[in-house]
Design brief:
- With about 475 residues, the protein is mainly alpha-helical.
- About 65% of the residues lie in helices and about 0% in strands.
- A hairpin with a 5-residue loop joins strand 1 and strand 2.
- Helix 1 packs parallel to helix 10, helix 1 crosses helix 14 and helix 6 packs across helix 14.
- The longest helix is centred in the first third of the chain and has 36 residues.
- It starts with about 25 loop residues before the first helix and ends with a helix.
Length: about 475
């Protein structure tokens, strides 16, 4: 039982074997770009429509609510990341502060989050790519563009983009960061183009009625949660991604400074981008006309007579979406790397290549995610990623509170302001959003963690017997 609450000792670079040390190549601009690349993606490109359908024009408040909760969590992440500058994100912080079993639950939840995000984005990108190729006269057979559940054999484009991104990550972190920076700039320019073209069509009348489904969370006849908070629970997906920055702790040039700048800087930038784009979108076209569209921004542009610009936005989105894949595949491989070091995965997977990247674990991660993306339809279970993230955010905020009480004299390069207000707000906000998720999502998440605990106790039993032997 004592091992369940065992606290992990964090090793510094000099204490690790040479084959486990990663190259420090990332400055704060690269970390901010990594965060923006992870955050600004399918969220603003698609979820603005989903959110507007569930909250009406009050989707702006849903963005604010989700943004505030994520901002509180980001401040907690910044403190823990600079205090414990090691890879692993919430998993590592939980292991160092709360104990092994809590770390396992968080790590298992992060596996769910990152896997579903990467797979979902890959499948979404596949749809854009197939449509784009069709416009060029290249027809991808339906059997190779859809998984078995959708009548196909395998989603080959989804597997291909995962392979490309994984290959780039294995090539080198510095090279990946440079390409990510270029694509992030393209993404921001695309959203700026949308705002510039749609803003002249702004009509304040589109904001009435402002909150047709109320400000809380109400169950619809279709089992969907409506209202401002119901929409916030889904829009939350559009904000997280900054936690991928904390997985880069061992590759940051100056982690005590760069991690805090990267986490907070990306959150501030993305919140501003989201609110501006959402306000212009609602003002340009009534919510009822774009609320259920899978490509709401392009639909708005076509509806106001800007078909060519809509094509440009759709093409740019398809080109830039891989930044989300890169950030989350990067983050997941680093979490797997740390779990391998800790004995939850084979230690040989933690070996670092001559270029300073974890090639083996990145390859394993890519294969697992590609199988999910290639064979499974994820539209009904993608919200499970939100559940996993909410658990991780709660754990990090709890780490701040426990650490402040137990290790009050510890060195903290970045200190969360008003920690006894910010951390509880993050915890309570995440709990409320978790309660606002659909019941089937909550049940599926409980099943996932029940399986995870079974795996954990089997691992503990194996380690105990191996130790006795």
């Amino acid at each position: 039982m004592a091992s369940l609450f065992k606290i992990k000792t964090i090793l510094h670079d000099d204490d690790r074997p040479p084959e486990h040390r990663m190259a420090r190549t990332l400055g704060w601009p690269s970390l901010v770009a990594l965060g923006v690349g992870a955050i600004v993606g399918t969220g603003i490109l698609t979820l603005i429509g989903v959110g507007a359908d569930r909250a009406g024009p009050a989707v702006l408040l849903s963005f604010v609510v989700a943004g505030i909760i994520c901002a509180c969590a980001a401040l907690c992440y910044a403190e823990m990341a600079t205090m414990i500058p090691a890879s692993g994100s919430a998993y590592t912080y939980s292991y160092a502060v709360l104990g092994e079993i809590f770390a396992w639950v968080v790590g298992w939840s992060l596996i769910l989050e990152y896997s579903l995000v990467v797979s979902t984005v890959a499948v979404g990108w596949s749809g854009y790519a197939v449509g784009f190729l069709k416009g060029l006269g290249v027809i991808v057979p339906a059997a190779l563009a859809n998984g078995p559940a959708l009548g196909g054999v395998v989603n080959l484009p989804a597997i291909a983009i995962i392979a490309v991104v994984a290959g780039l990550l294995m090539l080198g972190t510095r090279e990946s960061a440079r390409l990510n920076m270029v694509l992030v700039i393209l993404k921001i320019v695309t959203l700026a183009l949308f705002v510039a073209v749609a803003l002249p069509h702004f009509d304040a009348g589109n904001f009435d009625p402002f909150a047709p489904h109320g400000y809380g969370s109400v169950d619809g006849a279709d089992g969907v949660k409506y209202g401002v908070m119901g929409a916030a629970a889904i829009i939350f997906f559009a904000f997280y991604g900054f936690d991928a920055i904390s997985t880069a702790a061992e590759e940051a040039k100056r982690p005590e400074r760069d991690l805090a700048i990267g986490i907070i800087g990306s959150m501030v930038a993305c919140t501003i981008i989201y609110l501006v784009v959402a306000a212009v979108a609602v003002g340009a076209l009534p919510v009822a006309q774009f609320g259920k569209s899978p490509e709401p921004l392009a639909l708005i542009l076509r509806s106001i007579g800007q078909g060519q610009v809509a094509t440009i936005v759709a093409a740019a989105a398809a080109i830039a979406l891989p930044t989300v894949l890169l950030a989350f595949l990067y983050g997941q491989s680093r979490i797997f790397l740390v779990m391998a070091r800790d004995g939850f995965l084979p230690l040989g997977l933690a070996k670092i290549s001559a270029r300073g990247t974890p090639v083996r674990i990145t390859l394993l991660t890519a294969v697992l995610v590609a199988i999910v993306a290639g064979l499974m339809p994820l539209d009904e279970i993608a919200s499970l990623a939100n559940a996993g993230t909410l658990i991780a955010f709660i754990a990090v905020a709890a780490c701040v509170l426990v650490s402040r009480r137990r290790d009050s004299d510890a060195r903290r390069p970045f200190r969360t302001p008003l920690p006894w207000l910010i951390a509880p707000l993050a915890i309570l906000g995440c709990i409320y959003l978790f309660g606002s998720l659909q019941s089937k999502t909550q049940i599926a998440f409980a099943i996932w963690n029940a399986i995870g605990l079974g795996v954990y106790f089997l691992n503990v039993l194996w380690r105990t017997r191996a130790g006795r032997a």
